[in-house]
Amino acid sequence: MRSIAGRQRLSTARDVLAVFTGLATASSRRIGVFCECRYKSTGSAFPGKVKLGDKTYQKDSWFNVPDSIATSIDRQLHTTNDHPISITRSIVESKFPAPAFKHYHDFFPVVSTHENFDSLGFPADHPGRSKTDTYYVNETTVLRTHTSAHELEIFQAKESDGYTISADVYRRDAIDKTHYPIFHQMEGARLWDREKVAHGDIAKAVWEDVERLPKHHMIVEDPNPPTHPERNPLQAGHAPEEAAAIATHLKRSLELMVVEIFSRAKAAAMATNPNYHDEPLKVRWVEAYFPWTSPSWELEIYWQDQWLEVLGSGVVQQELLQKAGVPSKLGWAFGLGLERIAMLLFEIPDIRLFWSQDPRFLSQFTGVSDDLDTLKRFIPFSKYPACYKDVAFWLPPASSSTTSAAGGLAPPQAFHENDIMEIVRNIGGDNVEDVQLTDEFTHPVSGRRSLCYRINYRSLERTLTNEEANRFHERVRGELVKKMAVELR
Ligand code: DAH
User: Fold this and answer.
1) 314 within ligand 1 shell (Cβ under 6 A)
2) pLDDT of 434-475, one tens digit each?
3) How far apart are CA 392 and CA 487, in angstroms?
4) Measured between alpha carbons, how far apart are the two ends of the chain, in Å?
5) How far apart are CA 259 and CA 307, in angstroms?
6) Which of 104, 129, 134, 187 for mutating ligand 1's site (highest number of atoms within 8 Å of CB)?
7) pLDDT at 284
8) How far apart are CA 348 and CA 355, in angstroms?
9) Where is each FDX-ACB domain found (predicted)?
């Protein structure tokens, strides 16, 4: 899906949301598998220490966190009053009320590879672990790539039956209007204890809780059975009625959250345009796979003529609950991307805006955290001119291929597009709107690959001069040669 060979732009809804929810790890992160990344970060050279937030870490040869990322860790948009990410978080939280749900916002983003991957059952060769996709502090320490990294410890802490956690997450990724190397996720879970419910009857207790949830009138397509032996298996140790009851509670709870978001989006649209007319809201449940849930689903919303994936979810693997020391509990978990939801809710057209300090952006949300009913749609302030520059180059012979002769995994030193993105991002920062592969071919005799990328230099806040764009571009060309050993054409 996001491979270099036959790369497609982020054209499908699935692509867009894959990145936000991180579902990309399951389906679209193929090309980077086992790549030995040639790219060296701009952070100070290993060995030595690095300061992230108020903590200091030992670096090693895995270190690849650029300064721009390291210095953004303190921003905490998800808890900044009147920031659209924080407002969106509050709306989601409102549908998971106390005392059943406790809300966490303060987990530090530096976690172990055990927390981020192993504890959740990610296989050792999972592409999400690659240095090309993930920011490593050292071999066993990463910037979390998803909020699920904290599931185990929250289950262990046993502070409530359910919880939500909102937090910043980090991924090396493409550059375009819907991708940013830091984004925000919200995770939620709800457990029931066999030893606490009447007669140990989990299914009955969960169904009673389902009855207590409000009803809604949204159109929901859910054609598949709660479990399926091959596609979405029931866990050993779970009765079919238990999985069915938990699935229903999960789905109804998340549907209510979607109804809330979209009724607020509609009210905001009507506040600016009283003649606003919308289509009835429609969602569908799609079978999915996550290493730490079974059965699992994604929720998709029909929005502007396409299905958008908004979250991943499922019945928590009993093994995870055993590891957490709560083997008698069962329940569900979900994770969603807050930027995706906020972009729909406020009609924010470019993900870089969330990082803007421009009062023309921030002032549009003043007072909303205190009174969510004053939420309005974002009104774009200006569109500054685009400045396109191309860079074409030959890849060095060693990295010209991305698949082995057997058609399997990439050999060491294979090319990875995320390394280019990282170079452009470190030089142009938020002055780059988009980077696209526009041409690619393999020389019939030498077998070398040539690539051409088009970079759109455009600030959200002012007009960039051609000279400024040229200066960025010259540096990008220089770094491509220095760090990726390409030959410019
Ligand atoms: N962590 C997943 C991601 O980033 C999202 C997710 C899926 C979270 C399923 C969950 C879950 O808790 O049960 O793609």
Assistant:
1) yes
2) 999 999 999 999 999 999 999 999 999 999 999 999 999 999
3) 9
4) 27
5) 16
6) 187
7) 98
8) 12
9) 382-489
Least confident of 61-70, 100-109, 158-167, 393-402: 393-402
Q: What is the pLDDT of residue 400?
A: 63
- Which residues have a Cβ under 8 Å from the Cβ of 134 and sit 6 or more positions away? 116, 128, 142, 143, 145, 170, 171, 172
DSSP three-state, residue 165: strand
The secondary element (H helix, E strand) that includes residue 26 is: helix 24-27
Q: Is 293's C-beta closer than 6 angstroms to any atom of ligand 1?
A: yes
Give, using CA atoms, the residue closest to atom 8 of ligand 1. Answer: 335
CA distance 146 to 167: 9
DSSP 209-224: HHHHSPP---EEE--S
- State both tokens at 378: 């974002």
Task: Please check whether residue 306 is in contact with residue 13, taking contact to mean a CB–CB distance below 8 angstroms.
Answer: yes
Q: Could you tell me if the CB of 188 is within 6 A of ligand 1?
A: no
Closest residue by CA, ligand 1 atom 5: 335
Contact (Cβ atoms closer than 8 angstroms) between residue 250 and residue 311: no
Q: Looking at ligand 1, which residue's alpha carbon is closest to its atom 12?
A: 334
Smallest CA-to-CA distance from 317 within 208, 385, 236, 207 is with 236
pLDDT, average across residues 270-277: 86
Alpha-carbon torsion (82, 87, 89, 91), positive or negative: positive
pTM of the model: 0.88
pLDDT attached to residue 45: 54
99-106: average pLDDT = 97
Cα atoms in the 13 Å half-sphere on the side-chain side of 302: 13
Write out pLDDT tens, residues 395-415: 998 766 553 333 333 444 678
Q: What tens digit of pLDDT does each residue of 297-308 get?
A: 999 999 888 899
Tell me 158's DSSP state.
Answer: T
Of the pLDDT bands very low, low, confident and very high (cuts 50, 70, 90), residue 36 is very low
Comparing C-alpha atoms, which of 126, 120, 115 is closest to residue 28?
A: 126
* Side-chain half-sphere CA neighbours of 481 within 13 A: 10
Residue type, 97: P
- What tokens appear for 73 in the block? 């860790």
- Residue that the structure tokens 């074409």 belong to: 392
Question: What is the residue-wise DSSP string for 415-465?
Answer: --HHHHHHHHHHHHGGGEEEEEEEEEEE-TTT--EEEEEEEEE--SSSPPP
| C-alpha closest to that of 210 among 223, 195, 226 | 226
Task: Report which of 85, 107, 28, 83 is spatially closest to residue 340, judged by C-alpha positions.
Answer: 85
